[in-house]
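Blinded run. Sample ID left blank on purpose so nobody reads anything into the name before looking at the predicted structure. Input follows.
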Amino acid sequence: MTTTDSTTEPDETESAVETARRQLERAAAHLDIDEGVIERLRHPTSVYRVSIPLERDDGSQEMYTGYRAHHDSVRGPYKGGLRYHPGVTEDECIGLSMWMTWKCAVMDIPFGGAKGGVIVDPKDLSSNEKERLTRRFAEELRPMIGPMRDIPAPDMGTGPQSMAWFMDAYSMQEGQTEPGVVTGKPPVVGGSYGREEAPGRSVGIVTREALAYYDRDPAETAVAVQGFGSVGANAARYLDELGASIVAVSDVDGAIYDPDGLDTGDVEGHDESPGMVSGYDAPETLTNEELLELDVDVLIPAAIGNVLTGENARGVDADMIVEGANGPTTSTADQIFEERDVPVIPDIIANAGGVTVSYFEWLQDINRRSWRLERVNEELETEMRRAWTDVRREYESRDVTWRDATYIVALERIAAAHEARGLWP
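Blinded prediction complete.
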């Protein structure tokens, strides 16, 4: 495990929960909060582990392991994604559930944090197998989820169709349609317009606000985006429309680079057409690692966690980093960027558009009234700007990083709720 006073020790083994706890402790050091509250927030309320039997298309049966971590619900029902990935672990789910708690609080959304997933490579499943796995996972989780208890959402390896299957399986067992049990569904079954684009759109909005704070003109800004999937592609296209020059993007196979700027509308995202990015006809091709070290104004890591580490942070040549992925920067890398005065705008505000529009979707579901896309985007703009203003005030009033300022906003709200509600004997 990495120590925060070392900038040379490799930190690729730092888990999400270790990073989340370090960030909690840094923010807590700036606030006068009861240690009992901080100790409670270091740990999840509960973690569920379930076994999921799956009948494969050839008639054989396999067992898969799934998790659902509940971190904190003092401000409202648990909220967080479900991912299908071979690297899912209990610790990862706990750490990500902690980040969801902070994310909901910094956006002032009345939800708590949760996260879950199944240890499986979704590429190894047929569509029918994925449906059967999802429906059985929903049944295994049914005692601990619900529109007022825990509301899952899509994540890596899942999407709107998975959420539709999940909602249908839950509803069939409940004997009535319960669209509010999950968010990220197709609009035809209670999903919200704009939900899929929301995390990337919020990254674009926050990048725009950060550029304005540092008196940078988007039209004179070069941007590199690692991970041209749902988040990265939508962030890149949003910034492209503002006039920024998107000079490099990547998928899992590699990166493309054009110093004059890429046409982000012509480059299809990895979710839209796998392999399209690295196979695109661009002036230069790069590795994902080389993209991270390009001389650009803004770097947006929007792929996976722990890509900016103690080993490569000094080679990053961007003037600013805006986190699109969850946890792309390790603690050691964070310290190096702080020493180098490189602003890092954290994930828990930058990509919070996903949970924000999920909240809008939940409101639409429980009220049985849908919103137009224009309203969704207007409301998202309002909420993102409000959250940015709250974080900016803390940043300006304290000698802290952007990450610390964001966590301070979140932690103050969570602690106030804990103190108001007290401790059940």
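Unblinding after everyone has recorded impressions. The CA atoms of residues 98 and 215 lie 33 Å apart.
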